[in-house]
Amino acid sequence: MDDERIVIMMTSGPDTPRRCATPFFMATLAAAMEYDVTMFFTIDGTLLLKKGMAKTVFPKEGGKSVEEFLNEALEAGVKMTACTASTELHGLTPADLIDGVKMVGGASFWQMTEGAKTVVSF
Amino acid sequence: MAKIRGFELPEDLYYFVEKHVWAKSMGGTLVRVGMDAVAGKLSGGKLNAVTVRAKNIGALIPAGKSVATVESSKYVGPVPAPVAGTLKRANEKLTADPNLAISDPYGEGWIVELEASQWDAEKAGLLTGPDGLAVYKAKLEAENISAE
Q1: Rounded-to-integer distance, Cα B102 and Cα B47, Å
Q2: Chain A contact for B51, CB < 8 A?
Q3: CATH of B2-137, one of 2.40.50.100, 3.40.1010.10, 1.10.760.10, 1.10.260.40
Q4: For range A72-100, the mean pLDDT
Q5: A–B CB contacts, 8 A cutoff, strictly below
Q6: How far is B43 from chain A (nearest CA, A)?
Q7: What is the pLDDT of residues A17-33, one digit of tens each?
Q8: What is the ipTM of this complex?
Q9: A76:B77 CB<8 A
Q10: Right CATH number for A2-121 from 2.60.120.260, 3.30.420.10, 3.40.1260.10, 1.10.287.110?
Q11: How distant, in Å, are the alpha carbons of A68, B2, B148 from that of B142?
Q12: What is the overall mean pLDDT for chain B?
Protein backbone atom coordinates (compact mmCIF):
# COMPACT_ATOMS: atom_id res chain seq x y z
CA MET A 1 0.00 0.00 0.00
CA ASP A 2 1.51 3.30 -1.06
CA ASP A 3 0.25 5.17 1.97
CA GLU A 4 2.32 2.82 4.09
CA ARG A 5 5.62 3.55 2.32
CA ILE A 6 8.32 5.72 3.84
CA VAL A 7 11.55 6.86 2.17
CA ILE A 8 14.50 8.06 4.21
CA MET A 9 17.28 9.92 2.40
CA MET A 10 20.58 9.57 4.25
CA THR A 11 23.26 12.11 3.39
CA SER A 12 25.25 12.11 6.66
CA GLY A 13 28.41 10.05 6.92
CA PRO A 14 31.45 9.20 9.05
CA ASP A 15 32.46 12.86 9.39
CA THR A 16 29.32 13.54 11.46
CA PRO A 17 28.88 10.48 13.69
CA ARG A 18 26.20 12.06 15.85
CA ARG A 19 23.96 12.36 12.81
CA CYS A 20 24.31 8.65 12.01
CA ALA A 21 22.24 6.85 14.66
CA THR A 22 18.83 8.49 14.52
CA PRO A 23 18.16 7.81 10.82
CA PHE A 24 18.60 4.06 11.38
CA PHE A 25 16.68 4.14 14.65
CA MET A 26 13.76 5.91 12.99
CA ALA A 27 13.87 3.48 10.07
CA THR A 28 13.81 0.47 12.42
CA LEU A 29 10.97 1.99 14.38
CA ALA A 30 8.91 2.61 11.24
CA ALA A 31 9.47 -0.98 10.12
CA ALA A 32 8.36 -2.19 13.56
CA MET A 33 5.18 -0.17 13.01
CA GLU A 34 4.66 -2.17 9.77
CA TYR A 35 5.58 0.65 7.41
CA ASP A 36 7.40 -0.31 4.22
CA VAL A 37 10.70 1.53 4.68
CA THR A 38 13.44 2.25 2.15
CA MET A 39 16.64 4.12 2.96
CA PHE A 40 18.35 5.89 0.08
CA PHE A 41 22.04 6.63 0.74
CA THR A 42 23.71 9.44 -1.12
CA ILE A 43 26.44 12.09 -0.70
CA ASP A 44 28.42 11.01 2.43
CA GLY A 45 25.75 8.58 3.61
CA THR A 46 26.99 6.05 1.08
CA LEU A 47 30.31 5.80 2.94
CA LEU A 48 28.48 4.13 5.85
CA LEU A 49 27.71 1.23 3.53
CA LYS A 50 31.36 0.62 2.71
CA LYS A 51 32.40 -2.76 4.10
CA GLY A 52 33.92 -2.33 7.56
CA MET A 53 33.18 1.38 7.81
CA ALA A 54 30.05 1.44 9.97
CA LYS A 55 31.69 -0.43 12.83
CA THR A 56 34.28 2.34 13.16
CA VAL A 57 31.69 5.10 13.56
CA PHE A 58 30.28 5.77 17.03
CA PRO A 59 27.49 8.33 17.43
CA LYS A 60 28.18 8.34 21.17
CA GLU A 61 31.57 7.57 22.67
CA GLY A 62 31.40 4.17 24.34
CA GLY A 63 27.96 3.47 22.84
CA LYS A 64 26.71 1.39 19.96
CA SER A 65 28.42 1.56 16.60
CA VAL A 66 26.59 2.60 13.46
CA GLU A 67 27.00 -1.00 12.30
CA GLU A 68 24.74 -2.14 15.12
CA PHE A 69 22.10 0.45 14.24
CA LEU A 70 22.38 -0.51 10.58
CA ASN A 71 22.04 -4.24 11.28
CA GLU A 72 18.99 -3.66 13.45
CA ALA A 73 17.37 -1.80 10.59
CA LEU A 74 18.20 -4.60 8.13
CA GLU A 75 16.82 -7.21 10.53
CA ALA A 76 13.63 -5.19 10.92
CA GLY A 77 13.16 -5.34 7.15
CA VAL A 78 14.36 -1.89 6.10
CA LYS A 79 15.46 -1.86 2.46
CA MET A 80 18.80 -0.19 1.70
CA THR A 81 19.56 1.47 -1.60
CA ALA A 82 22.67 3.41 -2.63
CA CYS A 83 23.00 6.12 -5.24
CA THR A 84 25.39 4.97 -7.96
CA ALA A 85 26.73 8.47 -8.56
CA SER A 86 27.65 8.86 -4.89
CA THR A 87 29.71 5.66 -4.96
CA GLU A 88 31.66 7.16 -7.83
CA LEU A 89 32.10 10.37 -5.84
CA HIS A 90 33.90 8.34 -3.19
CA GLY A 91 35.75 6.02 -5.57
CA LEU A 92 33.72 3.00 -4.46
CA THR A 93 32.50 0.09 -6.56
CA PRO A 94 29.36 -1.93 -5.79
CA ALA A 95 31.65 -4.72 -4.53
CA ASP A 96 32.97 -2.37 -1.84
CA LEU A 97 29.53 -2.10 -0.22
CA ILE A 98 28.00 -4.41 2.38
CA ASP A 99 25.65 -7.18 1.28
CA GLY A 100 21.98 -6.41 0.97
CA VAL A 101 22.36 -2.98 -0.61
CA LYS A 102 20.76 -2.33 -3.97
CA MET A 103 22.50 0.12 -6.31
CA VAL A 104 20.14 2.56 -7.95
CA GLY A 105 20.33 5.66 -10.13
CA GLY A 106 19.11 9.08 -9.10
CA ALA A 107 15.84 8.67 -10.98
CA SER A 108 15.03 5.69 -8.79
CA PHE A 109 14.88 8.01 -5.81
CA TRP A 110 12.11 10.01 -7.44
CA GLN A 111 10.29 6.82 -8.32
CA MET A 112 10.55 5.69 -4.70
CA THR A 113 9.07 8.95 -3.52
CA GLU A 114 6.13 8.81 -5.91
CA GLY A 115 3.13 8.08 -3.75
CA ALA A 116 5.22 7.49 -0.60
CA LYS A 117 3.48 8.60 2.55
CA THR A 118 6.49 10.37 3.96
CA VAL A 119 9.98 11.33 2.78
CA VAL A 120 12.56 12.30 5.40
CA SER A 121 16.11 13.50 4.82
CA PHE A 122 18.96 13.28 7.29
CA MET B 1 4.11 -18.28 39.37
CA ALA B 2 6.87 -20.25 37.72
CA LYS B 3 10.40 -18.88 37.78
CA ILE B 4 12.50 -19.97 34.83
CA ARG B 5 16.13 -18.90 34.47
CA GLY B 6 15.30 -16.04 36.82
CA PHE B 7 12.25 -14.87 34.87
CA GLU B 8 8.74 -14.78 36.35
CA LEU B 9 6.53 -16.59 33.84
CA PRO B 10 2.93 -17.30 34.97
CA GLU B 11 1.72 -20.74 33.95
CA ASP B 12 -1.79 -19.61 33.03
CA LEU B 13 -0.68 -17.29 30.19
CA TYR B 14 -0.27 -18.26 26.54
CA TYR B 15 3.20 -17.43 25.23
CA PHE B 16 4.34 -16.53 21.72
CA VAL B 17 7.86 -17.48 22.71
CA GLU B 18 9.65 -16.43 19.52
CA LYS B 19 8.68 -12.85 20.31
CA HIS B 20 8.38 -13.09 24.12
CA VAL B 21 4.77 -11.93 24.09
CA TRP B 22 1.91 -13.28 26.23
CA ALA B 23 -1.83 -13.56 25.66
CA LYS B 24 -4.64 -14.16 28.11
CA SER B 25 -8.38 -14.51 27.61
CA MET B 26 -10.29 -11.84 29.53
CA GLY B 27 -13.50 -13.80 28.99
CA GLY B 28 -14.73 -15.17 25.68
CA THR B 29 -12.54 -14.06 22.80
CA LEU B 30 -11.34 -10.79 24.31
CA VAL B 31 -7.60 -11.33 24.64
CA ARG B 32 -5.14 -9.18 26.55
CA VAL B 33 -1.56 -8.99 25.21
CA GLY B 34 1.68 -7.94 26.86
CA MET B 35 5.42 -8.42 26.91
CA ASP B 36 6.83 -11.16 29.12
CA ALA B 37 9.71 -10.83 31.55
CA VAL B 38 12.17 -12.09 28.95
CA ALA B 39 11.22 -9.27 26.57
CA GLY B 40 11.78 -6.84 29.42
CA LYS B 41 15.31 -8.09 29.83
CA LEU B 42 16.06 -8.11 26.10
CA SER B 43 14.82 -4.55 25.64
CA GLY B 44 17.68 -3.40 27.82
CA GLY B 45 16.06 -1.90 30.86
CA LYS B 46 13.89 1.15 30.95
CA LEU B 47 11.32 1.76 28.22
CA ASN B 48 10.95 5.31 26.90
CA ALA B 49 7.83 4.68 24.86
CA VAL B 50 5.18 2.10 24.05
CA THR B 51 3.21 3.19 21.01
CA VAL B 52 0.04 1.82 19.47
CA ARG B 53 -0.92 3.34 16.13
CA ALA B 54 -4.28 5.05 16.55
CA LYS B 55 -5.36 3.99 13.06
CA ASN B 56 -4.98 0.35 14.06
CA ILE B 57 -7.70 0.58 16.71
CA GLY B 58 -10.65 -1.25 15.19
CA ALA B 59 -8.49 -2.88 12.52
CA LEU B 60 -7.94 -6.60 12.04
CA ILE B 61 -4.34 -7.46 12.89
CA PRO B 62 -3.01 -10.75 11.49
CA ALA B 63 -1.05 -12.97 13.88
CA GLY B 64 2.60 -11.97 13.91
CA LYS B 65 1.98 -8.40 12.78
CA SER B 66 2.87 -5.53 15.06
CA VAL B 67 0.25 -4.20 17.49
CA ALA B 68 2.66 -1.83 19.21
CA THR B 69 6.25 -0.69 19.24
CA VAL B 70 8.52 -0.42 22.25
CA GLU B 71 11.53 1.84 22.57
CA SER B 72 14.33 2.02 25.08
CA SER B 73 17.65 3.78 24.70
CA LYS B 74 19.11 0.46 23.55
CA TYR B 75 16.31 -1.14 21.64
CA VAL B 76 13.42 -0.53 19.31
CA GLY B 77 11.11 -3.25 18.15
CA PRO B 78 7.59 -4.48 17.53
CA VAL B 79 5.16 -6.23 19.84
CA PRO B 80 3.63 -8.79 17.45
CA ALA B 81 0.09 -10.06 17.84
CA PRO B 82 0.24 -13.61 19.26
CA VAL B 83 -3.10 -14.37 17.57
CA ALA B 84 -5.15 -12.64 14.89
CA GLY B 85 -7.82 -10.26 16.04
CA THR B 86 -9.44 -6.86 15.94
CA LEU B 87 -7.51 -4.34 18.00
CA LYS B 88 -9.94 -3.04 20.63
CA ARG B 89 -7.90 -0.75 22.82
CA ALA B 90 -4.46 0.19 24.03
CA ASN B 91 -3.49 0.46 27.68
CA GLU B 92 -3.62 4.20 28.29
CA LYS B 93 -1.53 3.92 31.44
CA LEU B 94 1.50 3.23 29.26
CA THR B 95 1.32 6.74 27.82
CA ALA B 96 2.25 8.23 31.16
CA ASP B 97 4.48 5.37 32.28
CA PRO B 98 5.70 3.18 29.40
CA ASN B 99 8.02 1.27 31.69
CA LEU B 100 4.99 -0.39 33.34
CA ALA B 101 5.20 -2.84 30.41
CA ILE B 102 8.40 -4.12 32.03
CA SER B 103 7.96 -3.30 35.73
CA ASP B 104 4.49 -4.90 35.95
CA PRO B 105 4.28 -6.90 32.71
CA TYR B 106 1.39 -9.18 33.72
CA GLY B 107 -0.63 -6.58 35.62
CA GLU B 108 -0.85 -2.83 35.00
CA GLY B 109 1.64 -3.08 32.14
CA TRP B 110 -0.48 -4.99 29.61
CA ILE B 111 -0.23 -3.44 26.15
CA VAL B 112 -3.39 -4.03 24.07
CA GLU B 113 -6.63 -5.97 24.00
CA LEU B 114 -7.75 -7.83 20.88
CA GLU B 115 -11.04 -9.41 19.94
CA ALA B 116 -9.47 -12.64 18.75
CA SER B 117 -10.75 -14.01 15.44
CA GLN B 118 -10.09 -17.67 16.26
CA TRP B 119 -8.88 -17.80 19.86
CA ASP B 120 -9.70 -21.43 20.50
CA ALA B 121 -7.93 -22.57 17.34
CA GLU B 122 -4.96 -20.21 17.50
CA LYS B 123 -4.17 -20.53 21.19
CA ALA B 124 -3.21 -24.12 20.46
CA GLY B 125 -0.19 -22.70 18.63
CA LEU B 126 1.02 -20.89 21.76
CA LEU B 127 2.82 -22.38 24.75
CA THR B 128 1.12 -22.57 28.15
CA GLY B 129 1.12 -24.49 31.43
CA PRO B 130 3.99 -26.53 32.87
CA ASP B 131 4.59 -28.37 29.58
CA GLY B 132 4.69 -25.16 27.57
CA LEU B 133 7.04 -23.50 30.03
CA ALA B 134 9.36 -26.50 29.85
CA VAL B 135 9.67 -25.87 26.11
CA TYR B 136 10.21 -22.16 26.78
CA LYS B 137 12.93 -23.03 29.30
CA ALA B 138 14.71 -25.20 26.74
CA LYS B 139 14.63 -22.35 24.25
CA LEU B 140 16.08 -19.90 26.79
CA GLU B 141 18.80 -22.38 27.66
CA ALA B 142 19.64 -22.93 24.00
CA GLU B 143 19.91 -19.19 23.47
CA ASN B 144 21.70 -18.65 26.78
CA ILE B 145 19.19 -16.06 27.98
CA SER B 146 18.72 -15.56 31.70
CA ALA B 147 17.65 -12.78 34.05
CA GLU B 148 21.08 -12.54 35.66
Answers
A1: 8
A2: yes
A3: 2.40.50.100
A4: 94
A5: 23
A6: 13
A7: 999 999 999 999 999 99
A8: 0.73
A9: yes
A10: 3.40.1260.10
A11: 23, 19, 16
A12: 94
